Structure to design on (1800 residues):
């Protein structure tokens, strides 16, 4: 139970930021990195350079570069450095607040010189727990900034493509890079969905076992909760991607629009799958109810058959156990065998009756 | 159970394309054709020609033809040939990706020189399994391309009409041909719907049998799942056809619009029928629950009647089976018969009571 | 059961028109008229003329007439004559297809010279079966054509008004006549709704009988199905009437708009009533479930009371029926009466206990 | 039951107006006034006059008056007089039809010289029955006409305000008077809602009694029906008031718009409350189901405890009631007491077992 | 029960204002302050002044001040003083009515010189009861007025920020102050949501206890009601904030719009959380039903096992308790032991049977 409880806790909104000054930057998440680390990937058609650092100032020279620069910030605890970065890139204070507020729902904010996107990276830990990681993207003219809560992400494939110059990425601008980052995150949602499908299947199979675990109600409820959380993380993203595609922000090039429309298709597909799983999970509870009722029917039938057969027979035996002085049958020679005959006849009559009713 | 499991598996999204480079063409379906075969149908008002080949290059000369050309590609495994075709017809890389991504939901993409439509061909195999086949249509100026996963389709009637010059088709352009292809696919949805109606009817009838199979819950769940899958395949098509009809793409001639509106009517009608079947299927579970409860009521009544009649009688017999030295009744001459009288009286009283309560 | 089955069958979509050539006219309904008969009503302010014929050519002269002409076609089997009529009035081939396709859902198609409306005429047969008759209306400049599946309709009142020059009809054009036809059909929906209300009431009453018929589940399901069918026939009509009223087709005169708005109000009112009945019918199932559960509770109480009272008493009797050599109580003079006292005391204790629990 | 039945009947749509000529004025309600009575209130800033009459002609002179005139018509049976009034004020025939058709749903119709509004006045009779009274308002330039089914309304407060020159009313025009009439009707909906809240509370409390009345299902169903009826009467009014406020009809003065927006707020608030009560009422059924199931659980526990304790003990007594010649235990001196010991031990074991299971 | 009842009562709409004159100012809430107290906070970039008074006239001088002035009115009973204030600030009579009508739902009214907002302040008392406090905001050019029902609010943090010149507030105008007030109220909704999450968790845990309290149904229903009330208080606010942000009222400065959009994000987030909790709470009832059914299954199994084992054995004992003269088995030497053998064999057979069925 204690394991469950811990899981429950995570559902609650731990927004401890009430009565804050608006625009004040406070990290409210639960993942603690000791320090914030930066990863700088700078590339153009010909060259490609990667740099890791803990010092935010090392980022500044890249602003002058003619290349596309991707600055990936891991860890949101060291507020000061994020504020430094924000000041350097002239980000609005509310953006900084949203970067570190891990409760923020997916959204898009379009400013004159940059586009700001918040979304959630979802993955299952090895222990099977669903992790929801807050991630923010600032897309500028020749750069993008990404802010993650912790190390470890879904961008390894993308890093590889940049390094090996696979696909269009080295020939395209920061808008295509932002698209590729979003694409990597959304592609990973399909893994979540596949895992969820497996879970539903497992639950469904265990419903039809001879003796379903009584905890199955809790498992179904847990799954419902998980689906609700995933939905909450993913659904608002549809609106975000749609606005990105439909919007006419000058930072998004004409030819990137086709890719964004494709992304929109993917997020719609994820949403539809979630909706399907949701309906199935809700249906599981009904199935469980009929399963319980069927079991009870079976229990009742056993009781009814045993009682209906033996109670009348016991009565007959009781009658001839009475001690009246004058009970003529007791003294007939074959009475005892006649009574056995009657009792056997009743016994088989009852069997035949229950057979005909298909209870046996 | 193992048969069921296999069916379940198919529900999952087997999108193994994560971390791909966007625009990379990978076939993710499960139907394996050894080779990709092409069918070329070229016709105008007067002439008509059909050609089968495995060599994609044989298609190229037809581009110059003044006739309407329908190139039907069977099998999506040999990526290379599809890419060759795509390059020849100058298709966008994302289109090629969608052609082979069998998870892609129905959609329409309008480009300057062609319209791209993705949809699903649905049919039941002889074994009664629902098959969802991914099909893509590229409609150009004087040609249409169709891409299917496997041999066997619903176009035989259409081929026949072209050959025998039935209806308007030989007098019309590529847009009418595209309409005819869509019409053939959507007309076939009515067969699916009819089969589904039969399934619901069979389930409903078996619910009211004396002893409904306990697996009926699973059957209902399976049917729900099937309806959900069909809905997922068909619903987005409404939007597709609507955009095709409402849109003002120059490739669609004025007089084809009436036909497209008719198509839209059909797809709406299919959707409404699915919705009706969905409501009915969801209602089946409730019906099953009341059926179970009614059965249990009946079981309980039998038990209650047997127990209520014989337990008191057994008690009376028990009383006169006691061995007290002084029990005056035991020595009266007709006690035994009086007791039988009382017991029979009670017996008939109980019968009358249960009769009056309508339990018998 | 066989009666029910036949009813079920009717729910299915019997669209056998797959793989047809689009625009091909095939009657798919089930009502067979041996021949198609025509009724021609021609009137103006002063004169009024009615003619019955089987020959479609007799219609043609009326096209020249300055009067309003209503041509009512009964029976959709003789395709040839409908095609002849269609050709004469220059109807689009798709319209001819929709006229004879009884599966077509209600719709409106506006052409330059005429407006085409499809809808359903609903009535209960004397046997209480719901009949859904396909009816199409073509409204032109000085004429309207109506196509019905079979003889017998809801227009008798309207014919009477035309004949006796009641109301505005003889002073108005073809648009008002079309309105009057629609009004007659929609007014008749209120009869359907009243019958449905009676059915719900009957079901509800029978739910609260001492022993509701077990078939009541089937009856509720049947009623649900009927409501679903009616909804399917009527709901799309709201859109049709709305477009007719909002649209600015030159064939509809300014002053007819008020009448159309009134018609729209009626169809909304019908829809709302259906929605109300739908909610009530869905609620019936829940009521039935609680009814069953209450019955079971009652059954269980009888069993529990009988068993709880007599099982302990039987035990006591059993104890003094044991044959031990040394059982001192057996030999006391009043033991037997003491035991009876104890048993009666227990009996009344139990009665009092169950009385207090309000189970008696 | 007969009382209930009568209530049910009222739900049905008793629209007996089918096959009428459109625009024909027929009263279809159930409230019969022997005659139609008129109340004329004529006022301006300084003066105020009230007149009661049965003669419709007495109304005519007021049309010339510069004052605001409110003509309130009670009783819709004497069609002729309503038609006379309609002709005098040049009302469209469809309006007259709607005035007497008590089935008409709330609506607004804007004409050039007047605005026509239909709505429902709701109140509970002293017997607790919900009455739905059809009321129509025609608002002209210097007059308003109101048509009610029967005597008795919710306007006494308003009459008082006019008489005593309270509030803005005597300084405002006919549009403000129409607003005040609507406001009086809508304010009264809050009484309805309060009564409904009381009913839900009463039902909820009675659900948790020891022995809820079995008729509670019917009471819940009745309440559902009542909510559905109220909803049907009130919901369309939102659209009506919204159009009145948003519309720019010249008869509505600029400064009245703020009051109409306030009215709109009130009707939204009523709708929200109905929605809340609806959800609560629907929840009552679920609560009742769990209540029944809990009761059944309790019944079953009593049975199980009694049977589980005494059946084994009876078996032991039965064993030593057997008549075998050779049963050594029967002849030991203290056997009887040992057996009692065993039986008491079993008895207390069972008690302890059920205690531990918390069934006792 | 009486405690509950009092809670229920609060759900009802206690709108006793029917038949009032529109625009008449009557306080309808339940919180009684003996007097209305005023708090005046006046500040600019450099200076900051706070003043408490009971005399409404002390407010008037501040109107001339160039500073931003926040006038916070506590207590809505002394209508006269609120009317005085309203007259001084030239507020529309309907606004005054809404300020004291605590039943008013959240809304925004835009006037030329000020914006009027109504919303609800929600908090839990120490006794765990949810309190819904009506609060109105009038935002003018250099001032804002806030009207609360009682002392005690969620603005302490905000007062502190103004005093200590934290954040942007001292550098901004009245529009930013209004934003800050709204932000403080909405931030507090997150506390409500967290408490609600705890309540759901507690209920869920108690569902899975060995013996869930039967009152749990009432607790779930209570929680449902609470969620419904909170939803009613919060949902309309989305529209309010949205209109404030989207609207182009000259009183709202350009740079405040970003903050309002942020506020809108927060209220959407609160709404989504409520929706999630709603779904979970509704699911609790289903879980409880399965829990009850599982318990009943367990009870039935115990009964069935006990009865099925001992009823046949008792029958056997009964047979050999019969008193027939001629019962050969009675006289065999080891009959008694054979019978014990048979009975033990049956006993273990039954145990094995129930073991195999997994009922033990």
């Amino acid at each position: 139970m204690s394991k469950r409880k811990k899981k429950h806790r995570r559902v609650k909104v731990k927004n401890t930021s009430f009565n804050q000054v608006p625009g004040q930057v406070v990290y409210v998440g639960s993942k603690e990195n000791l320090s914030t680390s930066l990863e700088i990937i700078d590339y153009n058609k010909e060259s490609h350079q990667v740099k890791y650092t803990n010092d935010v100032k090392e980022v500044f020279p890249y602003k002058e570069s003619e290349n596309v620069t991707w600055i990936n910030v891991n860890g949101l605890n060291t507020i000061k450095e994020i504020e430094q970065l924000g000041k350097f890139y002239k980000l609005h204070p509310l953006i900084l607040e949203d970067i570190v507020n891990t409760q923020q729902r997916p959204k898009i904010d379009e400013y004159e010189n940059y586009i700001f996107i918040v979304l959630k990276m979802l993955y299952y830990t090895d222990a099977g727990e669903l992790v929801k990681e807050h991630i923010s993207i600032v897309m500028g003219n020749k750069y993008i900034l990404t802010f993650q809560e912790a190390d470890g992400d879904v961008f390894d494939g993308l890093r590889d493509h940049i390094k090996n110059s696979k696909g269009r990425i080295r020939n395209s601008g920061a808008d295509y890079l932002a698209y590729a980052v979003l694409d990597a995150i959304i592609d990973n949602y399909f893994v979540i969905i596949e895992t969820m499908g497996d879970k539903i299947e497992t639950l469904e199979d265990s419903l039809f076992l001879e003796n379903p675990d009584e905890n199955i109600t809790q498992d179904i409820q847990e799954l419902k909760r998980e689906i609700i959380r995933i939905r909450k993380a993913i659904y608002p993203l549809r609106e975000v991607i749609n606005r990105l595609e439909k919007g006419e922000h000058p930072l998004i090039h004409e030819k990137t629009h086709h890719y964004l429309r494709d992304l929109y298709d993917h997020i719609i597909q994820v949403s539809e799958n979630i909706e399907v799983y949701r309906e199935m999970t809700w249906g599981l509870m009904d199935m469980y109810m009929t399963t319980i009722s069927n079991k009870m029917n079976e229990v009742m039938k056993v009781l009814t058959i045993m009682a209906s057969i033996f109670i009348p027979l016991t009565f007959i035996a009781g009658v001839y156990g009475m001690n009246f002085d004058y009970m003529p049958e007791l003294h007939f020679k074959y009475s005892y065998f006649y009574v056995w005959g009657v009792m056997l006849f009743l016994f088989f009559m009852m069997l035949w009756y229950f057979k005909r009713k298909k209870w046996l």
User: Anything to note?
Assistant: Strands of chain D lie at 37-43, 48-53, 68-74, 107-110, 115-124, 130-139, 143-148. The CA atoms of residues 42 and 157 of chain D lie 16 Å apart. Chain D has a mean pLDDT of 86.
